[in-house]
Amino acid sequence: MYYLWLKQRGYGCDYTIGCGQVLEPLNGVTPEDGEKFTNRIKNKIKAYGDYIEEAIIVQKVGTAKKIIQEIEKEDAKQKVDNEKAKKMEQYKKLQKELNL
Length: 100
What we know:
The chain is an alpha+beta fold. It has 2 helices and 3 strands, in the order ββαβα. The protein has helices at residues 35-47, 64-97; strands spanning 2-8, 21-25, 52-59. The radius of gyration is 25 Å and the shape is elongated. The N and C termini lie far apart (57 Å).
């Protein structure tokens, strides 16, 4: 799923986080759709007129829970890999000391 993040010129409204910003879903289109995708983006930007200063295409990669699980899984794998590398370094040092 892709989204179009739009930000208006200036700083938006006073005392409101996210004011002057909108996240528009690009339902049913992907970059692989080529012109259909770009036309959808152009039409959404034009709908807001000259107020838009920035536009960013964002791709949803998963739910927050799934993303956290993937990060934790990668962290655990990295920890195991680091331990293996450390043990291998110790092993090579010991081999050298014992002339093996």
